[in-house]
């Protein structure tokens, strides 16, 4: 069973997660060291990023020693597209804080397909060269995916090009004005890439995620619910709001 912290609402959950991240950044700054964050997109972390921006603007939190690696990007995808996760991260966080431009990394959705494997290997190498991910933030898909590791993803999977699940494309259909326009593929950090992080916090918000969160926390460890692999990680916590806790025993 994965340790789970329940907050009465999404704002309180998000503020708590932002506090953990900012404490880590500040601690490393005091020690004269950098910190490596693994970051997620989607609706779930938006309030965490808002709070981090507030901490930067109002409480002097600096991101000058922060490196980050995002979990995923659609493929193909141009960075200036409104659907791009590069654009998402710049609008939701990076443009509003003092992270150096070269310090954040997002999988490149513009490469020719034959160059993707080499890009993915470099992505993994870059993380390792910086000493690994200190803190990994995750959301969870309705089908149990973490990053875009869809059901069937193996525990030893690395950063790679994947085919998106129907469930995932259906969830994105609204933003893309129809499922037909949602890309069929994405580049995602692998299960093993995620599991190597020193600390993992998965956030689940809303009743819609309650069943899959219960399956991940209490159910069998199975490739059919990739988030259940997190039961094998010794420093993972789920941070959820009350509506999301309704299926936990
Ligand atoms: C996003 C990601 C995905 C999302 C998940 C939940 O970078 O890796 O796993 O975290 O699909 O998405 P939301 O938060 O929009 O419900």
Give an account of the 3D structure:
This protein has 249 residues and is an alpha/beta fold. It has a single domain (4-245), classed as Rossmann fold (3-Layer(aba) Sandwich). Helix content is 33%, strand content 18%. It contains 7 helices and 10 strands. The protein has helices at residues 10-30, 46-59, 85-92, 116-129, 166-176, 191-195, 210-218; strands spanning 4-7, 35-39, 66-70, 72-75, 104-105, 135-138, 160-163, 185-188, 199-204, 236-241. It has a 7-stranded parallel β-sheet, with helices on both faces. Strands 4-8-7 form a 3-stranded antiparallel β-sheet. α1 (10-30) packs across α2. The radius of gyration is 17 Å and the shape is globular. Bound molecules: fructose -6-phosphate. Fructose -6-phosphate binds next to loops. Residues 14-235 form the Glucosamine/galactosamine-6-phosphate isomerase domain. This is Glucosamine-6-phosphate deaminase. It comes from Solitalea agri. Keywords: Hydrolase. One of its GO terms (biological process) is carbohydrate metabolic process.
Give me the secondary-structure topology:
Layout: E1 4-7, H1 10-30, E2 35-39, H2 46-59, E3 66-70, E4 72-75, H3 85-92, E5 104-105, H4 116-129, E6 135-138, E7 160-163, H5 166-176, E8 185-188, H6 191-195, E9 199-204, H7 210-218, E10 236-241
Parallel strand pairs: 1-10, 2-3, 2-6, 3-5, 6-9, 9-10
Antiparallel strand pairs: 4-8, 7-8
The chain binds fructose -6-phosphate.
Report a brief summary of the structure:
The protein is of the alpha/beta class and 249 residues long.
């Amino acid at each position: 069973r994965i340790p789970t912290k329940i907050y009465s609402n999404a704002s309180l959950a998000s503020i708590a997660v932002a506090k953990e991240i900012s404490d880590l950044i500040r601690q490393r700054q005091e020690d004269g060291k950098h910190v490596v964050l693994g970051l997620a997109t989607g609706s779930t972390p938006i309030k965490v990023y808002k709070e981090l921006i507030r901490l930067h603007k109002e409480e002097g939190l600096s991101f000058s020693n922060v490196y980050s690696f995002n979990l995923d990007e659609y493929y193909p995808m141009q960075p200036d597209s409104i659907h791009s996760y590069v654009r998402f991260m710049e609008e939701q966080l990076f443009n509003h804080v003092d992270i150096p431009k070269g310090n954040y990394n997002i999988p490149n959705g513009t490469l020719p397909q034959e160059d993707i494997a080499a890009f993915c290997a470099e992505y993994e190498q870059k993380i390792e060269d910086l000493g690994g991910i200190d803190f990994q933030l995750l959301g969870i898909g309705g089908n149990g995916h973490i990053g875009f590791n869809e059901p069937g993803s193996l525990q030893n999977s690395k950063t790679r090009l994947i085919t998106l699940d129907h469930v995932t494309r259906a969830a994105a259909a609204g933003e893309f004005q129809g499922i037909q326009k949602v890309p069929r593929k994405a580049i995602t950090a692998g299960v093993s890439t995620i599991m190597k992080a020193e600390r993992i916090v998965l956030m689940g918000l809303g009743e819609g995620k309650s069943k899959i969160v219960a399956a991940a926390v209490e159910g069998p460890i199975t490739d059919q619910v990739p988030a259940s692999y997190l039961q094998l990680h010794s420093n993972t916590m789920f941070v959820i709001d009350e509506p999301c806790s309704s299926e936990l025993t």
